[in-house]
């Protein structure tokens, strides 16, 4: 059986290991001539917190504030991801076959990542895990762990960088 990859989905936050996780995906993209999709999901605020803020601020003001700022935050996040991608591509020996596609969405990260993976028919999901201190070997990051458990697609977990 030959492994083929056309679409690789990289689910990333903007943490300290973002560049490293993206680099893994870019290298795989070169090897398989695959399209790389970088996804960032901006988590939604808990409904109870939103209700408290709406009571203090006013529901109309909060709705306007959210509408005005969601697009701006998504644009800034997209720019940050493009910058990371550009920096990582400059360090690579070979060029990526296809321009990297970046998507920024709002929502619950796990279902959103799985939905986008299905939409893209991703052949692989690449995601980083976060260190949990002394329990770092017992648990992955909660999003990575849930993706690993719930996905019917292959998942590559990139561990955090070890700090001395």
Helix content bin:
40-55%
What pattern of helices and strands is seen along the backbone? EHEHHEHEHE
Number of helices: 5
Radius of gyration: 17 Å
Low-confidence stretches: 134-140
Number of domains: 1
Derived structural class: alpha/beta
By CATH, the superfamily comes out as HUPs
What coarse outline follows from CA principal-axis ratios?
Answer: globular
Lateral strand order in the biggest sheet: 3-2-1-4-5
CATH C-level: Alpha Beta
Q: What is the name of the CATH topology? A: Rossmann fold
Overview of this structure, please?
The chain has 164 residues and is an alpha/beta fold. The protein has one domain (7-158): 3-Layer(aba) Sandwich (Rossmann fold). It has 5 helices and 5 strands, in the order E-H-E-H-H-E-H-E-H-E. The protein has helices at residues 18-32, 47-57, 59-91, 109-120, 142-150; strands at 7-11, 35-42, 101-106, 124-128, 155-158. Strands 3-2-1-4-5 form a 5-stranded parallel sheet, sandwiched between helices. Helix 1 (18-32) packs across helix 3, helix 2 crosses helix 3 and helix 4 crosses helix 5 (142-150). It is globular and about 55 Å long. 27% of the residues are buried. The model is unreliable at 134-140 (pLDDT under 50).
Write the layout of secondary structure elements.
Blueprint: E1 7-11, H1 18-32, E2 35-42, H2 47-57, H3 59-91, E3 101-106, H4 109-120, E4 124-128, H5 142-150, E5 155-158
């Amino acid at each position: 059986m030959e492994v083929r990859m056309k679409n690789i989905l990289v689910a990333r936050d903007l943490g300290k290991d973002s560049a490293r996780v993206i680099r893994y995906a870019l290298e795989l993209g070169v090897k398989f001539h695959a399209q790389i999709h970088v996804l960032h999901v901006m988590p939604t605020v808990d409904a109870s917190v939103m209700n408290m803020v709406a009571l203090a601020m006013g529901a109309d003001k909060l709705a306007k504030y959210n509408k005005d700022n969601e697009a701006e935050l998504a644009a800034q996040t997209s720019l940050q991801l493009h910058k990371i991608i550009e920096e990582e591509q400059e360090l690579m020996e070979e060029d990526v076959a296809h321009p990297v596609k970046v998507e920024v969405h709002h929502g619950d990260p796990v279902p959103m990542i799985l939905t986008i993976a299905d939409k893209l028919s991703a052949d692989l999901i690449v995601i980083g895990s976060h260190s949990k201190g002394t329990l770092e070997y017992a648990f992955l990051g909660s999003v990575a762990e849930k993706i690993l458990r719930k996905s019917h697609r292959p998942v590559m977990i990139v561990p955090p960088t070890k700090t001395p």
